[in-house]
Amino acid sequence: MINASLPPVIAIDGPSASGKGTLAGIVAQTLGWHQLDSGMLYRLSALAVMRKGILPTHEAEIAEVARNLDVRFVGQQVLLDNDDVSDALRQEEVGALASQIATYPLLRQALFERQRAFRKAPGLVADGRDMGTVIFPDAKLKVFLIADVDERAQRRYKQLIEKGISANLSALLEDLKARDERDMHRSHAPLVPAQDAKIIDSSTLSIEESVAKVLAYWAEVNA
Ligand SMILES: Nc1ncnc2c1ncn2[C@@H]1O[C@H](COP(=O)(O)OP(=O)(O)O)[C@@H](O)[C@H]1O
Ligand SMILES: Nc1ccn([C@H]2C[C@H](O)[C@@H](COP(=O)(O)OP(=O)(O)O)O2)c(=O)n1
């Protein structure tokens, strides 16, 4: 059900390295809307847990850390407890722990309102795993972005190398497969397309072609 009194949302969900964040950024910029990278909140929680030395099995403590995250966004920088963690957040071990702790209902609950608070006029483009299914079920447009796992591993590899972060292609591929498996099969808010989602397979698309598809769907919604 679409709630007309709230700012509109475009939800972009999909597996790791399918291109969600890239698309969300360009679409948000094109429309002049706000952006939510929900994966970053899970990564920030994972990094905070690592830094505090909390055991990955301690669900309640982890949820508490997430509830009290001291995060600030300054331009392109992300500050956690006043420390610039923009690069640290992209490390695969942080992503892997994020995927692991993201199975905890208490953590997901702790991040629920924080995510919904990003919904501001004139609109929000939100990307993640459960944007269209759980956080913004009334999103006006829901996109489920997929790409072959080998292609996603290549993309992630290139992305990390360009940022000067060392990476190993076969390790990345294994990590992506493990992450897909965990994200799709957890009992709470698993990675599945919403019933009304538009599926875009970006395996053979350029970024421009992917963006054009999302904007065409958006134009259709408003026609
Ligand atoms: N067709 C495409 N659509 C979106 N991103 C693409 C595409 N082709 C290559 N990429 C690249 O894939 C990489 C991973 O994209 P990213 O947005 O970080 O994925 P995600 O947010 O899903 O993990 C980026 O370097 C991006 O430039
Ligand atoms: N809405 C979301 C976003 C991310 N997560 C979890 C599952 C993901 O494996 C991790 C990391 O997410 P992130 O989007 O940063 O990962 P990728 O950039 O796609 O590799 O967080 C989630 O459970 N729900």
From TrEMBL:
Reactions this protein catalyses: CMP + ATP = CDP + ADP; dCMP + ATP = dCDP + ADP
Binding site for ATP: 14-22
Primary gene name: cmk
Recorded GO MF terms: kinase activity
Similarity comment text for this entry: Belongs to the cytidylate kinase family. Type 1 subfamily.
Main location: cytoplasm
Domain Cytidylate kinase: 10-217
InterPro entries from the UniProt entry: Cytidylate_kin, Cytidylate_kinase_dom, P-loop_NTPase
Localization terms from the record: Cytoplasm
Catalytic activity, EC: 2.7.4.25
Name of this chain's protein: Cytidylate kinase
Alphabetized UniProt keyword annotations: ATP-binding, Cytoplasm, Kinase, Nucleotide-binding, Transferase
NCBIfam families cross-referenced by the UniProt entry: cmk
